[in-house]
Amino acid sequence: MRHDPRMYLYDVARACEAIAQFTDGVPFVDLLSDPLLLPAVERQFAIVGEALARAIELDSTVADDVTGARDIIAFCRAVADRDEQLSLDRVWDAVEGRVPTLYREVSVLLADDR
Hints:
Elements: H1 5-23, H2 28-33, H3 37-58, H4 62-65, H5 69-80, H6 88-111
């Protein structure tokens, strides 16, 4: 049975929503000081990376419709693996910049009747 890539895109969208909810109105310094915030954000990035990769495996055109899809997957895997060379500044930049864009693009794909 072939899976529908939309179920993975739905997971991406929900993880983006969670990241936005966790960080709404939160200053960067809280990422460093709140013992729950960073692990929660890291977990959602892990979901984004895995779900986006699986969606692309099922439908390669998803990579064309998501800006920097393969870079996002690599970034999310680095976050999930707690890559020591990945700075928290980059994570925060992704929270503020990449996540809203990814959410918009995935929402369009979910609304599209392919």
